[in-house]
Amino acid sequence: MNKNIIELFGVSKKFENYQALQETTISIKHGEFITLLGPSGCGKTTLLRLISGFDKPDTGKIFIDGRDVTDLPPEKRHLNMVFQSYALFPHMTVYDNVAFGLRCKKVSETEIQKRVTNVLRMVKLEALHDRKPSQLSGGQQQRVAIARAVVNEPIVLLLDEPLSALDYNLRKSMQLELKQLQRRLGITFIFVTHDQEEALSMSDRVAIMNEGYIEQLGTPKDVYEEPASLYVADFIGEANIFTTEILETYDNKLVIEIEGKRIALNNKKDFEVKQKVHIIMRPEDITVWGENEITPEESKNMLPGTVEQVIYKGSTVDLIVRLPSEKKILAAEFFNEDDEKLDYHTTEKVWIDWIPGWEVILPYEEKI
Amino acid sequence: MKKKSSFFKILSINIVWLWLGIFALIPITLTFVTSFLTQDPNAIVKFALTLSNYWELFNHAYVSILIQSITLAGTCTVICLIIGYPFAFTIARSKSKHSSLLLLLVVIPFWTSSLIRTYAIMAILKAKGILNAMLLAMGLIDQPLQILYSYLAVLIGCVYDLLPFMILPLYANIEKFNEEYLEAAQDLGANWLTTFIKVVIPLTMPGIIAGSVLVFLPAMTMFYIPVLLGGAKNLLVGNLVEYQFLTANNWPLGTAISVVISLLMGAMIAVYWYNSKEKDREELA
Amino acid sequence: MNKFTKYFYTICVYFFLYLPIAIVIVFSFNNAKHSLVWQGFTFKWYASLFNDSAMLRVAWHSLILGVLAATIATIIGTLAAVSLFRYRFFGKKILHGLIFILILTPEIVTAISLLLLYSFLKIPLGFWTLLLAHTALCVPFVAVTVYSRITTLDTDIFEAAMDLGATDFTIFRKIIIPLLLPAIASGWLLSFTLSLDDVIISYFVSGPSFDILPLKIYSMVRLGVKPEVNALCTLMLAFTLFAVITTYQSIFKKKPS
């Protein structure tokens, strides 16, 4: 698990006049499920195609399993790809599709039959081996595409948005299936997606990309709870962002002012006085209190607000609360049997606070 | 990807380039060069540069042949459009199950030899042919009409031969035409004529242009249709080239005419090119 | 337009398209040399055609020429379409434009340019000049037919095949050829009928050593309408239609929707 299977050093790629990937250095471990996440045009597919060998980097070196493959064509890299459109050969049966790679490598037909049958059993498609792709459902085509790649026993499997063509429920179940398959095969999966929920639920590590950069690489928990930049905070999940200035610091604390209230927070990153910062709070970290739930004493450390909208979501109730400065924040309240009231109504006066230390403080960035 | 090119790739690109080089680029160049050379009774050409072939084209007889060819091709194109447009519209808008069959019925004559179809027209138009027999029997005429070996016969042959070339691109274009546009226009209060002029015609313009180019170009250089249907009377540009090459043995003049035809075609293709999207262009074939 | 007018109009156009062909067919069975009146059914024009050894030789020539020209043109045209679609190379745009222009070039312009080529290279006019000229005529048509089909394919399948270790030639043989077979076949068929019907180019580049059918028909037709010509034309029509229909049936019908 600790061996690096793929290493990229200073790899970059330019198309015409457009820098698709800035110089990127990244190591991917053996047996890891890593996701490249970002909006379209962020460079995630470029990065995948550079690893696969379909594109050649302008600068930098790519190593796979300790071997420099920068100048090697795709077929010599011991990795296989699952395409967004599946790219199944429409004129071949499921069996012939899966056997294609082995036949190109001149593997004997008896060996081919053994391996193809095995892998088809694994993806539960043995019974459909003589169907053409057009006679299969979307999910079945997806499995053929995966079978066709893994039958070659690659050390890394590259998946380019493989689930994006499936409907919601099927996508959910394929996510589970893919994750199980990856554990069973024990090989590295590099998965490209623009769906953050998918990325968080499947990956060991997530690389969040933006404009050709990797903004942050970390476990799903890391990127969600400790976003490294405003972009990551905003892209992953919902975030309430306050921009403010540090008034004073003492004893690992820093003091800021939000909505006219001076609030002391933990200073984890050695911020200095007068520095501009962003305070980020997840909606589920924010607690909303009704006016008669708290004492005036307690409200001293809380922000006043007015409920603007109530969004019922089943397991949570989302509230949009307008603060005195007209800024709107989103709070998610979980249903809980012993909990206080949840039946908020619009225009109701409320108080909000959050669990101290759960906020994230980031240095000021120009772009928001 | 900049990996080493495969043998297959190098081989196929070379075969294609070699073929088109020898059988397209070199012949085109030769034609162009020859048009500036001098006639020589004892050889193909004399290697003396001259512009006289082009000056000779301004000769009254040649100019009138050129004008006659253009007029014929233009008339033929307009007639094909008038016949073809409503026809293409009707079959393209019929039930989809039938429409491809109806289109196939248009294509079948197109798969058969144009020479044979011209010959068939001869059989109809000749003095003792079907047409005269029918008209006489119906009492519409007392004397057989002398249609064969006339300008009219050439025009009929031309239209008959080239009509499928007009219908096919029109069909392809109209088929994609969304019926809702018509309903939207009606809904907004446009009458039948306004809808047609303001909505249908502009939207099917690529098809109209494609069809017109495909009819006009061959019509202008008709070769055996004027000979067979027009007799010797209706000499067109195509026949002029043939005459210069095979009878008068004046190749430089023949190639000069060919160059002028090509330039005219080039201008038309350019108009078509700028008025079409790549997809429409591919539909030509 | 009301429904009746529409039907009537459509039928009129089909009538216009098919009447001449129908007349040729009917008269090829009419037992009369010049008369329009139906004089009874006969096969005698066909019999006299099949007893004409010169005619049979000419037909055989055309068949050989058509098959060879169509086959060579299909190979080169398919390679051209595949190269244009898959590869980047020197002069690619020029090549693409050239193919488009060649299709629209009037046959007479092509004919004299090839005649010039043969004259300058001093190649005697005959079988070879005809074969090369017919192939040259057909290559762009095949290229465009195949190209328009290849562009409808999902380009990912070529990358998938490369990813699975297929060489360019394997991709060509195992993926491109099977997937494009309908287009390649219709390209071949189109070439074959072009070659079989071509008068203009053949007229310029043929020599006395090798007669072909379209020129033979042309010379017969110029002398006036003869019943043997009706029979010959009917046979050619039947042959072309048979070829077209069987090819369409075998290739286009089995395609799953």
Keywords:
heterotrimer; A: 368 residues; alpha+beta; OB fold (Dihydrolipoamide Acetyltransferase, E2P); 6-stranded mixed β-sheet; 8 helices; 35% strand; elongated; C: 257 residues; mainly alpha; MetI-like fold; 77% helix
End-to-end gap of chain C: 34 Å
**Fold-level CATH name of the domain at 54-224 in chain C:** MetI-like fold
The structural class of chain B is mainly alpha
The quaternary organization reads as heterotrimer
Shape of chain C: globular
CATH class of the domain at 54-224 in chain C: Mainly Alpha
* Sequence of secondary-structure elements of chain B: HEEHHHHHHHHHHHHH
CATH superfamily of chain B: MetI-like
Estimate the mean pLDDT confidence of chain C.
Answer: 88
Task: Please give the CATH architecture of the domain at 54-224 in chain C.
Answer: Orthogonal Bundle
Care to count the β-strands of chain B? 2
Give the radius of gyration of chain B. 23 Å
Largest sheet of chain B: 2 strands, antiparallel
Q: Estimate the helix proportion of chain C, in percent.
A: over 70%
Largest interface, chains and sizes: B-C, 82 and 83 residues
Give the termini separation of chain B: 31 Å
What would the average pLDDT of chain B be, to the nearest integer?
84
CATH class of chain B: Mainly Alpha
Strand content of chain B: under 5%
Question: Would you kindly provide a written description of the structure presented here, covering whatever features stand out?
Answer:
- The complex is a heterotrimer of chains A (368), B (285) and C (257).
- With 368 residues, chain A is α+β, with helices and mostly antiparallel strands.
- Chain A contains 8 helices and 21 strands.
- A 6-stranded mixed β-sheet of chain A has the order 6-7-8-3-9-10, sandwiched between helices. A 5-stranded antiparallel β-sheet of chain A has the order 16-20-17-18-19, with no helix packed on it. Chain A has a 4-stranded antiparallel β-sheet with strand order 2-1-4-5, covered by helices on one side.
- Chain A is elongated.
- The two termini of chain A are 38 Å apart.
- Chain B is mainly α and 285 residues long.
- Chain B has one domain: MetI-like (MetI-like fold, Orthogonal Bundle).
- In chain B, 75% of the residues lie in helices and 1% in strands.
- Chain B has 14 helices and 2 strands.
- In chain B, helix 5 crosses helix 7 and helix 7 crosses helix 11.
- The longest helix of chain B has 34 residues.
- Chain B is globular, with a radius of gyration of 23 Å.
- The radius of gyration of chain C is 22 Å and the shape is globular.
- Chain C is mostly helical and 257 residues long.
- In chain C, helix 3 packs across helix 6 and helix 4 crosses helix 6.
- The longest helix of chain C is centred in the N-terminal third of the chain and has 34 residues.
- Chain C has a domain of 171 residues: MetI-like fold.
- In chain C, 77% of the residues lie in helices and 0% in strands.
- The chains are: A alpha+beta (368), B mainly alpha (285), C mainly alpha (257).
- Chains in contact: A-B, A-C, B-C.
